[in-house]
């Protein structure tokens, strides 16, 4: 079973990866057979290769993650709210997101899901 310390460390490493613009830092928190659904309802990204390609593209936008409150932990899962300030399509925006991580016994993320939609994209 993953520990609370491992789960918190993974969330903070994920945020730090965006801060650094380093997709390899993000990929490092995932299990080899992990699945990413970002946002929920889009095609799954499976395994390190597809996950890496996704984060290379995501980080190319210059997106940074700003946590909105504490990380919530429960039995091998983490949930955390954050917002992403960015300049997109000629406008300053914020996207408000809740991500969930499910962990394997080794403390690696086996599943990531991002919850947001058009109503969570706010022009500034």
SSE layout and pairing:
Blueprint: H1 4-20, H2 23-27, E1 30-37, E2 45-46, H3 47-60, E3 66-67, E4 72-74, E5 77-88, E6 91-103, E7 109-115, E8 121-123
Parallel strand pairs: 1-7
Antiparallel strand pairs: 1-2, 3-5, 4-5, 5-6, 6-7, 6-8
Features:
124 residues; alpha+beta; globular
Q: Can you offer a commentary on this structure?
A:
The protein starts with a helix and ends with a strand. It is built from three helices and eight strands, in the order H-H-E-E-H-E-E-E-E-E-E. It has 124 residues and is an alpha+beta fold. 29% of the residues lie in helices and 40% in strands. Strands 1, 2, 3, 4, 5, 6, 7 and 8 form an eight-stranded mixed β-sheet that branches. The model has no long low-confidence stretch (mean pLDDT 96). A hairpin with a 2-residue loop joins strand 4 and strand 5 (77-88). The longest helix has 17 residues, at 4-20.
Mean pLDDT: 96
The stretches of 5 or more residues where confidence is low (pLDDT under 50) are none
| Helix content percent band | 25-40%
The coarse overall form would be globular
Order of helices and strands: HHEEHEEEEEE
Distance between the termini: 42 Å
Number of strands: 8
Give a quick account of the main beta sheet: strands, pairing sense, barrel closure: 8 strands, mixed
Strand content: 35-45%
The multimeric state of the shown protein is: single chain
Structural class: alpha+beta
């Amino acid at each position: 079973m993953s520990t609370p310390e491992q789960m918190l460390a993974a969330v903070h490493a994920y945020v730090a990866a965006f801060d650094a613009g380093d997709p390899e830092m993000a990929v490092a928190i995932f299990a080899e057979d992990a699945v990413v659904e970002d946002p929920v309802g889009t095609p799954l990204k499976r395994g390190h290769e597809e996950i890496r390609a996704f984060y290379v593209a995501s980080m190319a936008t210059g997106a940074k993650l700003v946590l909105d409150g504490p990380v919530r932990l429960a039995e091998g899962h983490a949930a955390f709210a954050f917002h992403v300030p960015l300049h997109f399509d000629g406008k300053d925006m914020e996207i408000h997101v809740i991500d969930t991580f499910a962990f394997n016994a080794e403390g690696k993320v086996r599943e990531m899901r991002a919850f947001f939609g058009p109503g969570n994209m706010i022009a500034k």
